[in-house]
Design a protein that fits this description.
The protein is an alpha+beta fold and 369 residues long. Among the domains are: 150 residues, P-loop containing nucleotide triphosphate hydrolases (Rossmann fold, 3-Layer(aba) Sandwich), CATH 3.40.50.300; 91 residues, RNA polymerase II/Efflux pump adaptor protein, barrel-sandwich hybrid domain (OB fold (Dihydrolipoamide Acetyltransferase, E2P)). Helix content is 24%, strand content 30%. It contains nine helices and 18 strands. The strands form four sheets. A six-stranded mixed sheet has the order 6-7-8-3-9-10, sandwiched between helices. It has a five-stranded antiparallel sheet with strand order 13-17-14-15-16. Helix 3 packs across helix 4.
């Protein structure tokens, strides 16, 4: 039986991604779209992925975030079937697909370089996968047209990839991926080649498209702002392991350890009364004369450096009690000259106790004996 031409959402799909609250399993008891169980992959003596466990629920925008070499892309490739794990399992919708080749998995992948065929038109690129599947011509055209309309490229069918901008080529690659209606769409740093303005625009558009098609997205990036902007949940990777999984606000406001604290956004690490705490720069105030910081933890210090950045200024303060803090203040009425004149000034900084979070030191991987 032929599939219908329109790209439709799942029956009963909800605004809240299934499994976002429950760690990957929907409230109806369905298995998660993706489950990774004790997944491990090594290349010689280099352990790329070190026994990770993850669940991604139906319809989630789930991001694998971490620095280069942290194992996130290798994990994505094992989900896609391009890499075979040394040990562990990959499940899609409850079925073990560990030994199944990529073309037999209900997944599609969008790469950073888009991988468009330069000799084909935009329409032919989007239709290519359906041609391989021997979908009827009229069906192909209708589904390709729907997909291009969704990514706002209607009327571009006859153009070649060389006639498109970077952002347009990225949209064509996305249309080609979603037109086959995969259960899971894997995206390997697809915005990495775009300039900052276009990347920020595409972040909003990509999240909007995911909300329309209701396909589970698993997104790889090293860009913390990108992850915080688009994700329903984030897994923070480091040295082949997952340091923390949670919603963006949880990752940012309640980091699990010093690695997450330092990698996800700017933060201040201090040791006070035998404990390690972190406070985000935007939570710290430079107290004006006459402000006693009632209800706040306050400390004295000296402004060592000032960086004026247009709508905000960053102040680096050496604290009398030891350590330093970065303070961010919006330039509501402060000029660049006034801000830069603060260097060397003695100040009092303060933050509310609930804005300081106790953190533990990350457990280091033991060297093999």
């Amino acid at each position: 039986m032929e599939k219908t031409a329109a790209i439709t959402t799942e029956p009963g799909a909800q605004d809240e991604p299934a499994g976002a609250q429950s760690g990957g399993r929907s409230s109806s008891g369905e298995p998660p779209d993706v489950r990774l169980n004790a997944l491990r992959k090594a290349y010689g003596d280099v352990v790329a992925v070190d026994g990770i466990d993850l669940e991604v629920g139906r319809g989630e925008f789930f991001t694998l975030l971490g620095p280069s070499g942290s194992g996130k892309t290798t994990t994505l490739r094992m989900i896609a079937g391009f890499e075979v794990p040394d040990t562990g399992k990959v499940e899609l919708a409850g079925s073990d697909v560990t030994g199944i080749p990529p073309y037999d998995r209900e997944v599609n992948t969008v790469f950073q370089d888009y991988a468009l065929f330069p000799h084909m038109t935009v329409g032919e690129n989007v239709e290519y996968g359906m041609r391989v599947q021997r979908v009827a011509k009229d069906e192909r055209r209708k589904r390709a047209s729907d997909a291009l309309d969704m990514v706002r490229l209607s009327g571009y069918e006859a153009r070649k990839p060389s006639e498109l901008s970077g952002g347009q080529r990225q949209r064509v690659a996305l249309a080609r991926a979603i037109v086959n209606r995969p259960r899971v769409l894997l995206l390997d740093e697809p915005l990495g080649a775009l300039d900052l303005k276009l990347r920020e625009q595409m972040q909003v558009e990509l999240k909007g498209i995911q909300g329309e098609v209701r396909i589970t997205f698993i997104y790889v990036t090293h860009d913390q702002d990108e992850a915080l902007t688009m994700s329903d949940r984030i897994a923070v990777f480091n040295e082949g392991r997952v340091e923390q999984v949670g919603r963006p606000a949880d990752i940012y406001e309640q980091p699990a350890n010093d690695f997450v604290t330092g990698f996800v956004g700017a933060s201040n690490l201090l040791e006070r009364d035998g404990a390690r705490i972190t406070v985000r720069p935007e939570k710290i105030r430079l107290l004006e004369s006459g402000d006693d910081g009632s209800g706040m933890h306050t400390e004295r210090g000296v402004i060592r450096d000032v960086a004026y950045a247009g709508m905000m200024t960053r102040y680096l303060v050496d604290l009398d009690a030891g350590g330093e803090v970065l303070v961010v203040r919006q330039n509501l009425e402060t000029s660049s000259t006034e801000a830069l004149e603060q260097r060397g000034r003695q100040v009092t900084v303060g933050w509310r106790p609930e804005h300081s979070v106790a953190v533990t030191e990350k457990t280091r991987r033991e060297d093999p004996q």
